[in-house]
Protein 1
Amino acid sequence: MSDMTTTSQPVAPKPGAAPQVADPMLAADGTPLKRSLARALRAQKLRALMLIAPLLIFVLVTFIAPILDMLFRSVENQVVPNTLPQTVVAVEGWSPDAGETPGEPVFEALYHDLFLAAEAKRHTRLGSRLNYEHAGLSSVFRSSGRKVDDVGEVQLDALDALDKSWKDSGFWYALMSGGEGAAGDTAPLKAARGRLERLTGENFGGDAGFVPGQEIARILPRTVAEYSTFALFTAIDDGKEVARTKPWEAVKVALIQEIKRGADLAGYDGPGAAELRAARDMAAGQPDIDFKAAFADIDEAWDEIATWRTISAYGGHFTSGYFLNAADMQNGVDGIEARPENQRIYVMLFQRTLFMSLVICGACILLGYPVAFLLANLPMRTANLLMILVLLPFWTSLLVRTSAWKVMLQQQGVINDVLVWLGLVGDTGRLVMINNQFGTIVAMTHILLPFMILPMYSVMSTIPQTYVRAARSLGATNWTAFWRVYFPQSVPGIGAGSILVFILAIGYYITPELVGGTTGTFISNRIAYHISSSLNWGLAAALGSILLTAVLILYWAYDRIVGIDNVKLG
Amino acid sequence: MRFSKTLLASTALAMSAGAVAAEDMADSMTLVSWGGAYQKSQVKAYTEPYKEMNPNVEVVWDESSAEAVAKLRAMEEAGNVTWDLVDVVIADAMRLCDEGLAMEIDADEVLAPAPDGTPASEDFGDLLMSDCFIPQIVYSIVHGYRTDVEAWNGKTPTSVCDVFDLETFPGKRSMYKAPLYNMEWSLLCDGVAKEDIYDVLSTDEGVSRALAKLDTIKDQTVWWSAGAETPQLLADGEVVIGSTYNGRLFSVIAEQNQPVAMLWDGQIFDLDGWIIPEGLPEDRLARVLDFVRFATDTQRLADQAKYISYGPARASSAPLVGKHIELGIEMAPHMPTDPANTQNVILMDFPWWADHRDDLDAKFQSWLAN
Amino acid sequence: MATYTLRYVEKKPLSFSLPVLAAAGGFAGLFVGAAQSTMLNGIAGGAVLLAVLGFLALGVLDERREKPVRWGVMALMAAGGWIMGGLAGLIVGIAFGWFFGWFVYWIGEGRYRAHLLPYLTPGQVLGHYAFRVTCGLIFFFLITPIVVVMPLSFNAENFFTFTPRMLALDPEGFSLKHYRDFFTNPDWQQALWNSVAIAPVATFLSVSFGTLAAIGLSSEHVPFRRAIMAVLISPMIVPLIISAAGMYFFYSRLGLQGTYWGVVLAHAALGIPFVIITVTATLVGFDRSLTRAAANLGANPVTTFFRVQMPLILPGVISGGLFAFITSFDEVVVVLFVGSAGQKTLPWQMFIGLREQISPTILAVATILVAISIVLLTTVEMLRRRSERLRGLSPG
């Protein structure tokens, strides 16, 4: 082993051998040795990379990509601009400082956005999204979605009463497509397709069986846009024939608004021209549709500045809201501020997770060190047998060990029973050892102890016993020999074990869930809660990102101090 | 009027019997339920007889009802719905329906009429609370208590408010780890009239008031999140009184013979039933509709009550409820719907909860953690 | 010629043995007394009893009577236990009797020094044994929870509690029904089958990819080695809940969620760090000139790998594989998210068993699995010894 041939390269020219430059050393095939070596090195690198590549790709695809994908949710906010595209644009010029809610155009945009969202059943998702920032908005959107088709009821009734063709789906189809053979304009259809696809995340490709008429699209752009959206949705999502389906109220509302505002019907002689003119005359005698009042009527929250502040603040494609929430803060009236006292929870949970992981790590060091020391200093045969006692819990299902601790620790459990039997505690004074921090710490120390013992043991078994004996023979006391000679050599083992245990502890989920009660749970439990119960995936991702950052910093430190190559298991 | 009803009924019949031929139906379906004794009752009462009629059909069970909303949402996002029929509580059904994750159904078209010809919509009556929801059972959240607590000096709790009385009834309690149910009870026991509970709870002060009442027992409470926990805790003597589903308590008391008794006062009704996920391919949908029609008919719902003490959702099933299949005891008195048990029932306001759940959850969880 | 023999294992004077024995007896008596609710009497009784026994055994009776004396002590204590605590007391009594019978001679004859360096001072001897006892307690802490749940798997009732009948060792309190449930219930059988179908394939994937990569990584000329290593180790350090959620969303999009291969891939990814770590550790000690020698002798790289390198790093590969296997076999968080009903593994079924229907069947399963692990671990240890013997190394 000490043979020098183990160093790999053939003897390369020494750096000091400058004079040879003029006459380069040649390899057997006549190429200069330097180049030949470089080529060999390159080949070696390539070979190594080829060996690593399959696994690297495998891990990147099956593991890293999912993690990044998940973490992206912590800043992603598409649901707001995708569900309320017109509102978000319209509300841009508005500022909460104005002291009043936005003007009529914003409410009109909201009407059209919300109407479509309610048809596609997407408004409640937006409601739950905004509810995270402003409690109560969930129900606002839910109820508004139910009642949005009542907006402008008076005007709609008047239109329907004016002429029964306005209730006829065929008439509408002819009006909007400009009749048979009319020049078509596919732009509104394309826009509608984009709007629907962004809203639902589904594919709206395919034939709608409808093409907007060029002329009507010029005169009544918004009505045609709304009708195109209706047509696409009806044809693709509902699978119905557009010409036989009555258009949404939103289409009619758009029409009333447009003819009332003086759409230029003068030169129009396509289908329904007469009806349109009649409608224009009728609409002139009707009061304007008051969207603001209508929404305030549906839910008074629409009349509150706070509602609109939230919509305007969270209208972007990306948001810092989840991260703020994860730090117990929010985007309040005067910028970023702390959340109200009764909603602060995450900072405390992060601190608790950190503190308890430290305690668990400390407990593992205290319990693991003597055992690792014993194992390393016993004859191999005995050590291997005792090692089974360490490995057995390691191999036993986590769930079983956790439930075993439940059986042990609960008030009617084994430990309390034994204590009562021994008379050390009274039957009424049974100790509370579970559903609190103590329970979590004991169970997790037990579960993670092998992860401490194994690296410690692998380091300690390389420390020659002769050092300690030499120290003793030089007159050191037992304690000095241990503390000054043995212990410093075992520190890498402690480092390896404790960072491993700490990293594992900080992300634990199942055990605190089962034995932690309310005071012994970790941040992971909240992450799991938000993923599977509250469905606030953005917040879960933000909490996860913070946790992951903490772990990565630890890993970096670990790699620096110990070197990841130096971890050994068993 | 009459004509249209007959027409409806005949289309429904055609749907189940003629129009969809058996070969057009998928051969396997994935049903999602809650596991445990409840799922066992569904296997015995629904799928086993169904498989006898359709031996080629394979039924896969998934015990994921607790995470149904989250999983369905992710499945929809991915465009790959693997479930065919999902057992959820009404609150989740409403949420799924609102979000377009569950299919809307026409009760009279999809569900079988009662044996006497009453259409399904009348037979289920008020329980058809959401357009997507097919009711199966009425259950309730009740308290159970241990009958052998020495510290109680022979007294037994008679009112739901005794849960909050630590002096007369000392010992640990177990309560649901969510605002649901607990908020109602704590307001009721804080002197709010039953019909005002949700009005009070709609205000911030009301929420604080409910939490303040819960504060009085907070350090004596073990919080459960799965239905099996309270029975285990009661049987172990870890808690002396705790809330859970009435069927779970029935099994502790009648099947396991533990020293536990029911406290029927202040029980809260809840509903559980099926939803069909939106966007199933045709063959799977046909199979599921066929199964649902069978599994929610009058006889099947009554059969389920032989295995577990939950009340069938059809009015026409009630008279058919018989004896427990193994214990041979009459099941009717153990039903949450039995008149003797419904002296002081709290009716949950499901739409209210649908609106306020997120908000209250955040406040409750923060209260719990602090 | 004057001979000097180092006689450190020698009979101790009674003035030393009796107080030590009395102290030990008092300590044990404390617990017995407490159980009878008279702690002081217990201490005094225990001390006196052990002192008297010690005096009888060491001072009065001949050393060669050791065996009968030990049996006598055991019988005496067993009888005492029976009187005080029935069947359970009898068992405790037998254990106490066996221990103290041995302890009396161990102390009195000075046998406790037999394996120690002769020059240790009494204080050091005491320290040595104090350390051993501490380690014993830690092992006790490690193993007790597992031992405690085993009897519960024979519980006749459906709860996780020692019933009074079990404590009284009444046969009625025990039953094999949870084992029956495990072997007859299709849910459990399906779960077992799924675990058996998933874990080996996941292990195979992580071992084959992992070993190749570890060999690549062990070469000296790998660019970005640290970064690559960090990526490959990441499945071990990323908190499981984050991995699970991420895979859940991502695999859903790929259509892998709820499929057999989805779970296999997820588990393979989780097992990879263990393979990488163990195999790289083995390769550190690998002599690279061996592969060159093989190449020199005309072997192609594939032959070299399988005939030279593989046999030498096999122990590392196997132990990495074992870790990967157990990771998959015991994994519950990720499979809960990535899997669906068709991939319900044993841990998942156990999780349901804990959450939805508390049933000691999971303890029966655990007991079976622990038994299998013991057999496996012992087999591995015996194989190791055998191979060392074959290779001419003296087993340590």
Note: Chain B touches chain A at residues 66-67, 69-70, 73, 77, 79, 95, 98-100, 151, 172, 177, 222-223, 236-238, 354-356, 358-359, 361-363, 365-370 (CB under 8 Å).
Protein 2
Amino acid sequence: MVYLKGGTYVPLYSLDTLKSIVKPFQMDVYPVTNNQYLSFVLKNENWQKGKAIQLFTDSTYLKHWATSWSLGKDSNKIKNAPVVNVSWYAAKKYCEYLGKRLPTVAEWEFAAMASETKANASTDSGFYQKIVDWYAKPNHNHTLGNIGGTFKNFYGIWDMHGLVWEWTQDFNSALTSGESRSDSSLDKDLFCGGGAVNAKNLKNYAAFMRYAMRSSLKAKYSVGNLGFRCVKDVIVH
Amino acid sequence: MKNILVIISMILLLSSCHSKKEFKIPEQFPDNSIFNLTSEWKTQDGRIVPLKDFGGKINVAAMIFTSCRSACPRITADIQRIETEVQKKHKDEVGFLLISMDPDRDTPEKLKQFALDHHLDLSRWTLLTGNDDDVMELANVLDVRFKKSVENGIDHSNVIHVVDPAGVIVHQQIGLAVDPVETLNAIEKLYE
């Protein structure tokens, strides 16, 4: 894991008064791989494919694995690729099992602001363009590359962009009412909202994409390009 | 006089003769039961309980936070509306759960005060608070979205859940001041 000293992060939808303070934390260098997830389910039967309960997983949980306890004949191809088709509950349990936790949206976005050379590349339009280009690129062969295949950012963290989408602890804080295309404000009866919501950085189209992705998720969903990595609090002595 | 007493007691007998149904708690909860969650919660009296302790009866549940000024009192009022109707037919058989999405501020004492302020009968109502992660997990199980907002507020979705005796969510009333007829029907269906 690598250490990040934290700082402030301005959420996409917020008021100026609502900067998130990101406390120091440690983050996994890579997304969790199929192989790593396999060793977790081998020790935690409850989370094996076919055994994990419906409350926590949907029917496509780990569907790219051959069996409950093996990756199958594609093992060599996928073992070092990020694990996907895992629910939020499963990702959370995996991190907890290792004494870690899922990153908050603020922590994830804070780490993701870093380009190869800058801790905060949020004013670097070239950096954002690269991310948006990745989002726009279709994945025709439906397989993900191995971890460590994109770029290492300022903090030494790999693959924050360009490989896989990632679960966050509070992904469900994206308040949009599903099907509605006119969510310019909160629906007052559906959501109780004290403050008006305004998007902060209109140029950050990539952040909008991630916001939309998160707001479309439910915790039991398995998605073919959605994985995760873990973080850990830093205990200050 | 004697006849009148007989008639009165017959009326009383008849009226208490509604269909009280005994629900059994299954040995193993269904796969989609919220009682599969192993988290523990604190009640308004500071008692520590797992969710499965609420099994064996129908529960109407919602997530709230007590410092909420607009929607939470309304959602509580919406549940009280359901309670009034349910009490007519199934006196004291259905439980009402309010679960805090703001565990840092909602201490058991705060919850107790909220119950007093809203005249909640604690023989039927239970208010729960927990830790952040468990609250997040439960919110996900219940499809409730929330986010910290300005002036210590929390933006959140307004949902009332009907939970069957085995912990399965059988109905969700979404939005505020909704006519509870469908929610009441969902409860009645469990009595069939």
Note: The first helix of chain A runs from residue 34 to 43.
Protein 3
Amino acid sequence: MEILVILVPLALMLGGAGLVAFLWSLRSGQYDDLDGAAWRAIADDEPPQEAPVKR
Amino acid sequence: MQVTRDFSHYVREAGEGVQHIDLAVEGVHCAGCMAKIERGLSAIPDVTLARVNLTDRRVALEWKAGTLNPGRFIDRLEELGYKAYPFETESAEVAEVAESRFLLRCLGVAAFATMNVMMLSIPVWSGNVSDMLPEQRDFFHWLSALIALPAAAYAGQPFFRSAWRALSAKTTNMDVPISIGVILALGMSVVETFHHAEHAYFDAAIMLLTFLLVGRFLDQNMRRRTRAVAGNLAALKAETAAKFIGPDEISQVPVAAINPGDIVLLRPGERCAVDGTVIEGRSEIDQSLITGETLYVTAEQGTAVYAGSMNISGTLRVRVSAASEATLLAEITRLLDNALQARSRYMRLADRASRLYAPVVHATALLTILGWVIAGAAWHDAIVTGVAVLIITCPCALGLAIPTVQTIASGAMFKSGVLLNSGDAIERLAEADHVIFDKTGTLTLPDLEVMNAADIPAEIFELAGRLALSSHHPVAAAVAQAAGAKSPVVGAVEEAGQGVRATVDGVELRLGRPSFCGAEALIGSTVVDPEASVVAFSRGSDRFVLSVRQGLRPDAKAVIAALKARNIGIEILSGDREPAVKAAAKVLEIPEWRAGVTPSDKIARIEELKQRGAKVLMVGDGMNDAPSLAAAHVSMSPISAAHLSQATADLVFLGRPLAPVVAAIDASRKALHLMRQNLWLAIGYNVLAVPVAISGVVTPLIAAAAMSGSSILVMLNSLRARTSSREIV
């Protein structure tokens, strides 16, 4: 059971890192536009030139 | 006169040498739009940031200070095919956003804590049935406490604060049993850990907070989103006024930047955006949005004009007054205040549930303790069992039962063009069994339509439309639009208050008053509609009469039939004249109608219906409807409504059709049904779980499984509010 000495702090550190990452992403506004973010992921990097887009 | 556009009101400094503006944009709905807008705006030199927010339908722009006029962005967006307008974030919206972020932060903390505590709990649960040493178990419990206690102190804030507020006001709400449950569970767990006990409930307490925060966040997010959409709609109306900034110089400024005492120019065909008094000029104005009256009234020096009035014929100079100075407004405001005060605070379903819930749960816990003591158990064991009862009955599913349905139902309503102003509107709308419609602007459309276009040769009508393009008169605008005219007649001359004339191929064309066109003789034979305005058109010696009026909403008849099919009583209360109301009532087959009704009469009628036990839905748009919108059980306004009415109404619907009224009623009824079902699910869960808890055999494992099971069940059931019901009309 000596392994706990390593595993427990490791687990806590990983959990803490996850929490810090979440708080950072929240602060940097990544949850402000969830609909937009969903689309941005699949947007083309260099879309075709101003083709007449049907709206 | 020089006219400039001035948006400086909306521009703010964002750091060194950078200016920032937010624009509300109409019609952004996909990745394509987003990329198109961002590319199009970034192409403007000196723009440093152009980012679309698809959720709120807004664009944030930053550029090097002093290099660009924001008007340029609006023009660029128009070229790209989007209507945009700058907006000012209301303080209410800022507060909603801040609250929303706080709840998300709490949720994040609680969720991470839950996962980590669970990771420590599962070894304990499995260790308890195998070979775990008591020291190891204590160690794991202390670790759990180390994570759960600070996390609960932080993430529990929304509940603790609300519970404290309720207790200070000597009332109770759902947050009181939640807070008591969480605090007792944590406290007991710490004490038990001291005593090297087998069970601790850190996981249950923190998991409970996580689930409840999900409900709380959804609820808040719905409110935030509604607020954002409302802000956009207000901005996109782009209300500006032509303000005099010099004796002969005017600037088109946003209404927000106009102060009492300013002088604004009101041209024919413009809707007045401010309240004030005419100081120069003479015209006719259409006050139908204020009084419901469709006949024009004369405005001259000294006449009070209200925001929402349409100027018809002449140019006016208006001195802006503070809202309270105007007499008509003062009267309406007084009635509105009375109605708002008299409005008994509606007991929301969640409040009613919690009012029953808290005493029952606390009594059960207390009786459990006493029962075990009487049965001979030790005080310590009895109290542990009592707290277990509190933990297992903690209103996890109950806290999710209503917000989840509300969120999903309001999303569904949003899709059918209805916005919610208040959270409990869904519950109240579901109860409505009698609808009172205002006529002008509600059953009818605010824009004018040509009624007898079919009686006139198409070629003549088109010519009239082209001639009409040269006039700002709203009637002319309606003719031009109905004829689909694009190219104005060359050399057209407008004679103020009379009409437009032009000579084409040696033949004189005239459009305007019947006398202007020499068509008085035709009037008697053509016009039967009491509500219509008449405009004549002459080509050489041929004369025609066009009848122009506000048309009924395209689907009004079908909507009325659909409401009748749902056994909902319908009547019309209008401030307009009798013949006009009678005609509309006849077409729509509404037997009950009253004309010439004053705002206080409308309230009296609503009170009378209330006495009889009816739950009234008031649908109105005029400023004269505002007090009755507040007095009714629940109220709706079209988006074209007067500001005061829109702010008072519980729901606002968009677009030309009236169908959103029925769609909203259907959606809210379904939502209320699901809310009730969810409450029963939550109660059913308690009925099963409480006897287990009372008998003292609950372990943390059972508590965790029962709580998450019931919460997930309720959330899944709420998702059913999303499926749209059958075709409405």
Note: Chain B is about 50% helix and 20% strand.
Protein 4
Amino acid sequence: MSEPRTDAKICGMGHSMKRKEDPRFIRGQGRYIDDHVLPGMLYMDIVRSPHAHAKIKKINTAKALKIPGVLAVIDGPTLAKYNLHWMPTISGDTQMVLPIDEVMYQAQEVCAVIATERYIAADGVDAVEVEYEPLPVMVDPHKSLAPGAPVLRKDKEGKKDNLAFHWQAGDKADAERALAASDVVISENVYLPRIHVASMETCGCIADFDTAQGKLTVYMTTQAPHAVRTVLALVAGHVGLSEEKIRVVSPDIGGGFGGKVPVYPGYVVAIAASVVIGKPVKWIEDRMENLQADSFARDYHMKVELGAKRDGTMTSLKIKTVADHGYSNASANPSKFPAGLFSICTGSYDLKHAFCEVDAAYTHKPPGGVAYRCSFRVTEAVHAIERATDALAQKLNMDPAELRMKNFIKPEQFPYKSVLGWEYDSGNYGAALKKAMDIIGYDALRREQAEKRKKGELMGIGISSFTEIVGAGPSRDFDILGIKMFDSAEIRVHPTGKAIARFGTKSQGQGHETTYAQIVAEELGIPAAHVQVEEGDTDTAPYGLGTYASRSTPTSGAAAALASRKIRDKARKIAAHLLEVSEQDLEWEPGKFFVKGAPQMAKTIQECAFAAYTNHPQGMEAGLEAVHYYDPPNLTFPFGSYICVVDIDRGTGDVKVRRFVAVDDCGNIINPMIVDGQIHGGLTQGIGPALYEEISYDDEGNISGGSFLDYYVPTALETPKWETDKTITPSPHHPLGAKGVGESATVGAPPAIANAVVDALRHLGVTHLDIPITPEKVWTILKNKGVAE
Amino acid sequence: MAMHKISVTINGAVREAEVESRLLLVHLIREVFRMTGTHVGCDTSHCGACTVVLDGNPVKSCTVLAVQADGSKITTVEGLEQGGKLHPVQEGFTEKHGLQCGFCTPGMLMTTSALLERNKNPSEQQIREAISGNLCRCTGYVNIVKAVQYAAEKMR
């Protein structure tokens, strides 16, 4: 579908409708968490550990408590009285809320100061004195997993090693046999470093316990408000919090990208403080706390082996990963998938043999593994296969585009069952790559590169042809803490024909208020301008698992369509009643029913809505509303091909992205403008990790990259002028043929850039570079090879 | 902590306050004057979410003390719309999809409205340089550049 079926007044699918969110945001009238102020509200600030591993010998709060306005200092032993000093993680591990006697990572929460004002709370933090006894630090996940390593999680009875989990997919012996029988095998160690979502708004909350009603309201930066409510009820039931007395409100969110899925200790401490004190307590992270203590992603050490026949036909893939999860497995993966959807690692290729495994290690780092703009480890999987594909092309001396074309799953093979168990819904990979090659002028670029190489100039061309797996998920396989990963829509049409629609998801900038309204407009013909979309308040919205993993359109978007169709079915009965014909005699076009062969006999959806409240048929319930909980039959598999051109400065090692063409296919498109914006943003979150962003630790566990001084988020100067285009291959099972798009570019861009840099250096014998590919890394190679200027 | 009486003209209105020496201008605006359009996104003057126009220049209000602003004229995002008419940059950001989550947007609007005051016809590179102190994690900047070009066209 490329042309809209509705006119601009209705503004259904395919219209680049201006966003309904924008009027408040451009006036500074968004309401983010820190903009909320409640009467009598107190402020919380957190004392954090300077050590990566240490025994807490003493916490002296006397000086802090003497400061006028400091009301309390809450520490681990305080919470232990209520058995709230530990909490479960979404992955079923456990994590300290506040420590009793030992800290396990730098910047870990040690205790919290509650005060009447923000600045006074900060004064209190400065005045708390903590005596530590530093202990040995384990930062290397390989050493952590080695036999005889000291056990980090001594809290786990009987735990004898530092393995958080082992997971695998595929037939190891079969994959190894096929590798051994291959004509060529490439083997590369590929590391995806620890990075951070760095949403422009940090995390925070206001916990407000109403002592009179016994009701807790938590305003918080969460992408999954309903799940948080249930988790709170499950973990705090023993102190009297019951689910009907918990309301979670997720206000305007200043970017989430997966970092606002987990429940962090700060939220829990603020809630405990509010329950104990009986007043609202606000906690807002500053940027350094945000970068140092939560929202981490990646940190995958992958050994990738890819085999092929001499003609380039891929034969077998094997990946062994050591994953650094920090001191707790707090990643937000579906229960059955501790390594997320990493088994999409066969990517866009028709591989008959594959095996992958992940060993997750505990280390003295903050809990990591959030699905940063990525459907549960898809970024890691795509980076591995796309890097390996280029390494294979290099070894075979084949053009990387030709090698991809040769191995793509062909359009006629869909639905395609992958060797690691997924059923890809639809795709046309060759078409996307060809389009990208045409737009960028691939052949001419190769000629230019050859000429430049003769002159000693360094230019590289990189391709990435990714396949994603998004929209979790079918409830037979997907749940989080036992809650099935459906999602919901509830639509009410008012007597005057306007509607309110509420969802279990939660936008963080994706524009749900606009796109969901367009879906309802598409299905009911009610102008999108008159569809009010609301999310994020668990007292009013239907239950759902939230927004991450590109799941909103695949799940709640589908629910919006199906709830609308239920409403349309009822409206049809009303129209038949009003027109005194049978339902079968009616035809639908967006916005009205008319009698077949007599189009002048018609009733608009607005007339049907009015009648639903004023003149509905005898025996029919009044009103016009529906709710739908959508359980997708499968995931959706968006894909695309990206090509980028880089120039490398031989004097500085700096990599400049000269051009970047992104051809995406996310099935049918609801709002082309918004989809394009999602791609632009995702690409920028691809160039960041590819060239600039990394969180690393020294041997003592001290963080590097813990503030914007050294965590280098791309500015407008580094970011190229993205060129985007699309192909459209609808999903056969989604009610709208849509697929989800939010994460494609973050997933697809890094290997395209890495491949381009390696391509620029391949004549020097370079076969792989780990990201971020910093000027220093490149310059060191140039110097060692004697080509630095 | 010493207290100081200060007076500023903010979005055309004279406002007075008694503030601690250490109070940041961004907190004067957000917490004392309760104008929450100006955001805080970092603590190292990198992100620019807190950008306001102070006596004609875009500044990061997290890096100015409230007392330093005594006697000055401040424009925040709330002051851009005049008489019910959006400023061209506000219009441009909506028309060209120059915002997503909206958190960096007020700072971007203040930086770019100040740019267009001193340069009616900025090149793409000049626009990119002007906003290089304002981080956006959502848009990838391409549409922000288009939004500013749209506004420049409107203002000429």
Note: The mean pLDDT of chain A is 97.
